[in-house]
Amino acid sequence: MPVVVPTTLAGVFEALAADPHAHLLAGGTDFMVEVNFGHRRPPGVVALRAVSELRSWRIEGDQIVLGSGLTYADLASGAIASRLPALAAAARTVGSPQIRNAGTLGGNVATASPAGDTLPVLVALDASIDLASAAGLRTMGWAEFFMGAKKTARRPDEVVTAVRIPVIDSREDYLKVGTRNAMVISVAGVCVCVDFTNRRVQCGLGSVGPVALRAPEAEGWVAEHIDWNARAVPDPRTYETFGSMVGAAARPIDDHRSTAQYRRHAVGVLAQRALMRLV
Q1: Which of 27-36, 123-132, 201-210 has the lowest mean pLDDT?
Q2: Residue 127 lies in a domain
């Protein structure tokens, strides 16, 4: 099959125009698994690894803009990690060092696996997604973009170029459960963000639904039980109730990695623990 390796976004758009059926390849950590098992047979490939403009990040107004080509290793330490600690925590749980140096943020977003480790963080932080094509740029909120298990609103001629995350005064954490300590696909994952700017709690859930979910009832309830001036929880029973409400918001299934019952329980425990760490 033909493999094109552009060095600019303009080159990517030209390659897609020349072969509209070509598949985009970022880090390949999901893509190549599907190829090796015979689940994907791309007629052509447009590789994004050499597009340097996707590997940068910046502060733009009140947003942190992360290029889609940033790897998990890029996210896991340094200036990005200090600004987005939950995203860094999620990145550090992904695979092996080799996988973390190959897999990308944009690949995780575009694949839209229910078990994608960065997705609960992006959902909790109200991220939006930049999509570029030869026709121009459009930005979509996460709720519009993620449409189902491995299904997004990205058009065939579009490339995920960046993820935008609002800059807020917050504390945030990411926790996950897997079948072993390392190199494991998430059985359940949670990101909790305590937003002191807007006095609200935001909670993203992973591996417990067809897409990463929020728990709006739990978020609204717990926000009323935090002493925002003291940045404390006056009643310790709040943590357990919050965890139970988060578990109730999950939409898990039984599969080869876990039962739905265990996933619902685990996601509630993780949410409770995360909130206790943060407040």
Answers
A1: 27-36
A2: no
User: For the purposes of burial, counting CB atoms within 10 Å of the CB of 139, is it exposed (0-12), middle (13-18) or buried (19 or more)?
Assistant: middle
Range of the domain at 179: 170-278
**List of residues 6+ apart from 106 with CB closer than 8 A:** 26, 48, 54, 67, 68, 69, 70, 159, 160, 161, 163
Number of domains in the chain: 2
* Number of alpha carbons in the 13 Å side-chain half-sphere of residue 245: 18
Residue 225 in any domain: the answer is yes
pLDDT tens for each residue of 193-205: 999 999 999 999 9
pTM, full prediction: 0.95
Is residue 41 assigned to a domain?
A: yes
Q: What are the tokens at 58?
A: 């910046």
* Secondary structure element (H or E) that encloses residue 246, with its range: helix 237-249
Secondary structure class of 45 (helix, strand, coil):
strand
- 176 sits in which H/E element: strand 170-177
CATH of the domain at 261: 3.30.390.50
User: Per-residue pLDDT tens for 59-100?
Assistant: 999 999 999 999 999 999 999 999 999 999 999 999 899 999
